[in-house]
Amino acid sequence: MPGSLVRNYRIEMPENPLAVLKPGLIVPERQALRTPLRLGSFELWPAARRLHQDGRPVAITARAFDVLALLAARHPDLVGKAELMNSVWPGLVVEENNLQVQVSLLRKILGRDAITTVPGFGYSLNLPVTPGAAGTETSPPVAPGMLHGRAADLAELLELMAQHRLVSVLGTSGVGKSLLARHATAGMVSAWTDLAPCADADTMLRTVAGTVGLDADVPCVQALVRHLGRRPCLLVLDNADRVAGALPPLVDALLARSATRVLVTTQVRLHLPQEQVYRLTPLAVPPPGSPLPEALQYGALELLAARARGHDHRFTLAGPVLADAIELCRQLDGLPLALELAAARIPALGVAGLLRRLDERLTVLATVHPGTQARQCSLYDAIAWSYALLEPDEQALWCETAQLPAPFSLEDLMARQARRDIGRTLDLLGTLVERCLLRFDATPAPGYTMSASHRQFALRQPQPRGQALNAPAAHRSPHPAG
Ligand SMILES: Nc1ncnc2c1ncn2[C@@H]1O[C@H](COP(=O)(O)OP(=O)(O)OP(=O)(O)O)[C@@H](O)[C@H]1O
Ligand SMILES: [Mg+2]
């Protein structure tokens, strides 16, 4: 049996930078944690919470990472099941089979014999563990926050990026596009450009030029192509929503005349023939009545619980809180930004209190946290950002559909106005579905649905000109989106 963690570090394994830490206590600033740990052909990045193989990120769940980090910290010793469960699910009583699930996931990733089971006691890591080289090109530039419930998305996105030179991660405000892109590109040599502040083609070109180190007073597409053409590079165009219309000439030229690969995160696709779209949907929500360990396998609940614990370490999902938390995840459609904003309110309202206040979600779900991007300060701001990206006739139709009972059909919509053009109406509906502002289901009967959060927002908008909408005056906002 190993002694204390500190004794392990100082006497038995001085070269192991993880040995002084429990996984839940990893502090990104520690110099030791910027150094990867080699586990056979794998590299474990403690601060970035990344696992790489041959320089490429490997998809791994947060819990499996925690198990692996503790086994690596204790290598070559055995680690008891109770200690593993306490570290990986702190403050929760979980069934042992949850640990077995994570171990078998790790065996799939690392190889069948990489983890040895000692029946009745625990597990040990059966790979050579050595410190890796720090400061190489593949070190993640910024440690992305922990990614909950996205192991499958990460794996699929990495697969698409390996096959296509232009991939757009498409999804609604706050669904987690940028965080997923950070995880997908961590460890790759990439130029990361945040385009959120850019509203026109000139600023967009200047911003991209600045990111890739092109020194030009008035950068143009040709100069960027020439500059990037010399070396293979992954260009990440993050938050491209507002300049998605201005990007195609640049991206098209880069794909045709340079070795650049491009990853875009956006709510508005580029509509280039080479574009491979990855549609990012919200986090999975557990079915009502799920027992605790099973419920925690769903990303929405995992994120809500992790953030709630971040605000108060005593937060627990015990008793009736679990059912309320599942319902909260469902009501917020598993949207990560909404879940984060909700978690911040739990210390003052409780989960049940929050559920009772969801009719006021557009004002209740808000933060004053300094440094938060303006569009992510509240649920209202996030939806307003998506709304502002719509054309006026798209806005008008969307607000109109908020008044229809859900689900509504194309026929319901057409019946509201005798002279509505069906082709144009389908174009508008297509855009609203693509932007995740409406959901289309083909069964049991074809119909469109709007989420409760979107409905509250749409009903608050001033009546679009020329539409007889009869919206109740009380729903109109004093702060329309712009
Ligand atoms: N899977 C996840 N696990 C943990 N946190 C998440 C996850 N997805 C999103 N978040 C958090 O939710 C918030 C919104 O995520 P992010 O900024 O990536 O969304 P986005 O889709 O890029 O939004 P926008 O359209 O505003 O750019 C961030 O604080 C992010 O850290
Ligand atoms: Mg983003």
From TrEMBL:
Keywords: DNA-binding. Pfam families: Trans_reg_C. Signal peptide: none annotated. CDD domains: trans_reg_C. Transmembrane segments: none annotated. Residues 34-127 bind DNA. InterPro entries: OmpR/PhoB-type_DNA-bd (IPR001867), P-loop_NTPase (IPR027417), Sig_transdc_resp-reg_C-effctor (IPR016032), WH-like_DNA-bd_sf (IPR036388). The keyword DNA-binding applies. It comes from the Bacteria. Residues 34-127 form the OmpR/PhoB-type domain. Residues 459-482 are annotated as: Disordered. PANTHER family: HTH-TYPE TRANSCRIPTIONAL REGULATOR RV0890C-RELATED (PTHR47691:SF3), REGULATOR-RELATED (PTHR47691). This is OmpR/PhoB-type domain-containing protein. It comes from Pseudoduganella buxea. The lineage of its organism: Bacteria, Pseudomonadati, Pseudomonadota, Betaproteobacteria, Burkholderiales.
